[in-house]
Amino acid sequence: TLNKSEHEFTLSKDYGSGVIAFRNLDDPSKYQSAEFAAIAVDELTKNSKETFDFLRT
């Protein structure tokens, strides 16, 4: 199910009911303490390596 206002796509129960969230990297610290199964970054080269490393920790 697509929630356009939240920029989220919720998978069906058949696929574990997970949420695919589309977010920006204007402030990577807002993701601190968040848990992710995967992180995909569009146009990764537009962000510093430090930003990517921060998301991985």
Q: Biggest sheet: strands side by side, in what order? A: 1-2-3
Helical content stands at 10-25%
Q: Could you spell the SSE succession in H and E letters?
A: EEEH
Class by SSE composition: alpha+beta
End-to-end span in angstroms? 30 Å
Mean pLDDT over all positions: 87
What gyration radius follows from the Cα positions, in whole Å? 13 Å
Q: How many separate domains?
A: 1
Oligomer, anyone?
single chain
State the shape. Answer: elongated
Instruction: Tally the beta strands.
Output: 3
DSSP strand (E) fraction? 5-15%
| Number of helical stretches of at least 4 residues | 1
Largest sheet: 3 strands, antiparallel
* Sequence stretches where pLDDT stays below 50 over 5 or more residues: none
Short account of what is shown:
Strand 2 and strand 3 form a beta hairpin. With 57 residues, the chain is of the alpha+beta class.
How do the helices and strands line up, and which of them pair or pack?
Elements: E1 2-3, E2 8-10, E3 19-21, H1 49-56
Antiparallel strand pairs: 1-2, 2-3
Give an overview in words.
The protein is an alpha+beta fold. It has one domain (2-56). The protein contains 1 helix and 3 strands. It has one helix at 49-56, and strands spanning 2-3, 8-10, 19-21. A 3-stranded antiparallel β-sheet has the order 1-2-3, with no helix packed on it. A hairpin with a 4-residue loop joins strand 1 and strand 2. The termini are far apart.
Describe the structure using short key phrases.
alpha+beta, 1 helix, P-loop_NTPase
